[in-house]
Recover the amino acids of this structure.
């Protein structure tokens, strides 16, 4: 059991004042029901307090509970311009297209272990507890909920956009302040191999391997942009899918 630190100004006595019980269907994405319970004295042991009968949780009780909890869980800090979406267990942001120094440690003989400048498209990152995702954008502009996403052409990315982190440590906090650390973990890692099963994740003859061979030979932002293939999913639906997947774990 982890130690819980209660921060207060001076000595604080905490008394059991109530209980909240949550009921959920076996499938974690199913309905949730909540009851609130008062605390009563045990008739057989007056020194003992027990949870009393429950009543359905009302909207006003839920609002009061959420207000108290949000003081400790809500994000506090300046919101960067590249932040797209934030929730208690998720952040999403975008980064513009750029030519970046790119590192490879690949078994592909055409690439091998090397590094050099290469064009990267604009990207959308989505981070959740224990994992993160990346998608490409056709235009290097801030996306909206209905913006179409494209497959990120990078190695170490699965078909659904999930990034294979390997032994790369990820930031512990899911907060806007962690965005630079996430981007360092992605762009400064060694790209090793393609995890794609989709045959047309990029519109380039020879696939992602040929695309990066070409980019290492001569960075070409227009060629990178032309190579992008649509996921047939917009930003809003991708976030909904990732949220659902994360809630089922």
């Amino acid at each position: 059991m982890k130690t819980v630190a209660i921060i207060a100004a001076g000595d604080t006595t905490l008394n059991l004042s109530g209980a909240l019980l949550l009921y959920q269907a076996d499938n974690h994405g199913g309905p949730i029901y909540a009851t609130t319970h008062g605390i009563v004295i045990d008739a057989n042991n007056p020194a003992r307090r027990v949870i009393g009968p429950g009543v359905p949780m009302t909207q006003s009780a839920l609002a009061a509970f959420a207000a108290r909890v949000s003081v400790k869980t809500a994000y506090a800090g300046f919101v960067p311009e590249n932040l797209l979406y934030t929730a208690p267990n998720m952040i999403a942001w975008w980064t513009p297209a750029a030519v970046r120094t790119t590192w490879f440690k690949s078994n592909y003989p055409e690439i091998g272990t090397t590094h050099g400048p290469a064009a990267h498209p604009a990207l959308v990152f989505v981070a959740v507890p224990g994992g993160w995702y990346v998608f490409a954008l056709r235009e290097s502009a801030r996306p909206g909920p209905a913006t179409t996403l494209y497959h990120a052409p990078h190695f170490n990315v699965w078909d659904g956009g999930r990034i294979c982190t390997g032994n790369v440590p990820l930031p512990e906090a899911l907060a806007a302040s962690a965005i630079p650390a996430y981007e360092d973990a992605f762009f400064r890692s060694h790209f090793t191999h393609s995890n794609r099963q989709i045959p047309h994740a990029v519109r380039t003859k020879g696939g992602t391997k040929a695309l990066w061979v070409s980019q290492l030979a001569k960075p070409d932002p227009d060629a990178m942009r032309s190579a992008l293939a649509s996921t047939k999913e917009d930003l809003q639906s991708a976030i909904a899918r990732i949220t659902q997947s994360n809630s089922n774990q």
